[in-house]
Amino acid sequence: MFTFEEKLFNKDVMSLDTYIMFKLKERTDELKDELTKKNRAPISLSMGAPTMMPPKKLLERVKELMDEPNIHLYATPRGELYFREAIAKRMKNRFGVDLDPVNEIFSLIGSKEGIAHLIRFLTTQKEDKFEKDIFMVPDPCYASYLQIIKCSGGYAYPVPLTPENDFKPDMEEYFHKLKEEGFNPDKVKAVIINFPNNPMGIGTTKEYVQSVVDFCRKHQILLISDAAYCDLYFAEDEKPFSVFELKGAKDIAVEFHSFSKPYAITGWRLGWVCGNAAVVQRLGKGKSTIDNGIFKVLQKACAEILNDPEGDEYIKQGNLGYRRKQEIMIKGFRELGWDIPDDKISHTTFYLWLPIPKRFNSAYEFCEAVLEKSGIVLVPGNAFGEHGEGYFRLSFVCSDEQLREVIDRLKADGFSYN
Ligand SMILES: Cc1ncc(COP(=O)(O)O)c(C=O)c1O
Question: What's the whole-model pTM score?
C-alpha cells in the first residue's frame, strides 16, 4: 500500500532528507537554550556564508536604484544586457577569457539554482541504477551535487580526491573503472569539477584541468566547472583560473560563477553560467519556463560592482581577513594536537578540512559531541561523500574573536586530537 506522498513522488525524491546545513541549523536551534545556559551559546562554523557586511557602495546603489522607473518589473531570464556585458568584461579582465554576452552568458538565481536545473535537464529519470544518467563527481564534494543528482534521477559516480592521487584523479582510470563495474559509459553525461574546492579548500593546476578537458572532449562528455570560490585566494601563486583559459574548453564546458561569496551576499541569489553556447542556451530555454530572472535592482548594482575598483578592493580585504582567520584556526588546532604541515595548507576559500580525533568512531559522532558540549557547529565530512568519513569541515567565516573562542572552548572541553 502506497501512502499519498509515495503515490505522488518517485523513490529518489522520497529518499531525500533536508539539506545537511539546514538540518544542522535545526539541531543547533534545539540545543540553543541549553547551550546558552552553560555559557556555550552556539557558534556556527557550518555554512559557507561570509558574515561581514557587503561592499558599502553596493548597498548604497541598491537603495538608490529602488526609485528607478520600471526597475521593479519582471527581468529577462537571461539577465539584462548590461548585466551580461559586465560579466563578459569581468571574465576578460580577471581571466583573459573572451565570452559573447549574447550567446555564452546567462544569469542565474545563485549558482546552485543553475547547477540544479542543468543536472535536471540532462537527466532522464530511470529507476535502475545501471540505466541512470551518470555524473562523475569529486568525492568529497559540495553536498548539493549529490542531492541534486539524486532527486533528478541520476547517478553520482564518485571520483575520489585523495592525498594518494594528489587530489588529481585520472578521469580515464575512473571511466574505465565504472565500465568494469557494469555501468554504461554512454550514460556519462557530465564531469563536475570544483576548484577551489568545497569542502577541502584545495586548488589545482592548469595541467590537471587541461587533462580533464581533453578527457571530456575525447568522450563527448559535458564538463561542469563550478567556480564559486574563484575569487577567494590569499596567495598570488595559488590564484584560481577559469576553465576557459584552457585549450578546447568551450567545445565541451560550462562554468558556474557566483556573487555570493566574494561580495558576502549569499542571501541575494545572483550568479551566472557561461561557456558552450549550445548548453548555455538550452539551459536558458528551460529556465525561461521556470523563473523570471534576477530582481533588476540587484542586477544593476552587481553589474556595476563587478568592474569597479572598490569591488576588487573589497574582495582583496576580505581575502586578507581569510588569511588571518586561517592562521588563527591553524595555530589553534596545532595547539590542540592536530598535525598540519605547512606544505599541506592551501590558500584558497575559507574552509578547514581536518581528520577527527581517533577516539571517535565517526565524523558524525565527533561533530555531535562538539556541538552538544561546546556549542560549536561543524560539518561531518561524510556529508560531502564517502571519502569524507573520518573528517570534518569548518568555515572560518565569523569574527576573529569568535574563532579564538572556538579554540578556547575546544581546549577547555577536552577536544584535543590525541
Ligand atoms: C562549491 C559550491 N558551488 C556552489 C555554491 C552555491 O552558491 P550560490 O550562492 O551561488 O548558489 C556553493 C555554496 O556553498 C558551493 O560551495
Answer: 0.97
Contacts with 157 (C-beta within 8 Å, 6 or more apart), sequence order: 134, 135, 136, 137, 174, 178, 183, 188
Do 371 and 28 touch, CB atoms closer than 8 A?
A: yes
Q: What local confidence, expressed as pLDDT, does residue 244 receive?
A: 98
Report whether CATH 3.40.50.300 matches the domain 70-308.
no
Q: Which of helix, strand or coil describes residue 211?
A: helix
Mean pLDDT score across all residues of the chain: 97
Element (H, E) at 134: strand 134-139
Stretch 42-59: mean pLDDT: 96
pLDDT at 1 over 90: no
Q: H-type helices in 182-225, by residue range?
A: 206-219
Where does the chain hold its CATH 3.40.640.10 domain(s)?
Answer: 70-308
> Cell 558576502 appears where?
264
For cell 580533464, the residue is 212
In ligand 1, the atom with minimum distance to the C-alpha of 266 is 9
Mean pLDDT over residues 70-89, rounded? 97
Cα 381 to Cα 103, 140, 246, 338, 386: the distances in Å are: 39, 8, 31, 16, 8
The H or E element that residue 374 is part of is: helix 363-374
> Smallest Cα–Cα separation from 373: which of 108, 128, 42?
42
C-alpha cell at 407: 579554540
User: What is the CA(223)–ligand 1 centre distance, in A?
Assistant: 17
Q: How far is CA 222 from the centre of its chain?
A: 19
CA 143 to ligand 1 centroid distance, Å? 10
Domain formed by 4-53+312-412, architecture: Alpha-Beta Complex (3.90)
In the chain, the percentage of residues whose pLDDT exceeds 70 is 100
Residues of the chain with CATH 3.90.1150.10: 4-53+312-412
Using alpha carbons only, how large is the chain's radius of gyration in Å? 22
Which of 20, 200, 226 gets mutated to test ligand 1 (max ligand atoms within 8 A of its CB)? 226
Q: Residues near ligand 1 with C-beta < 6 Å?
A: 48, 110-112, 142, 194, 198, 226, 228, 258, 260, 266, 271
Most informative mutation of 47, 115, 142, 291 for ligand 1 (most atoms within 8 A of CB): 142
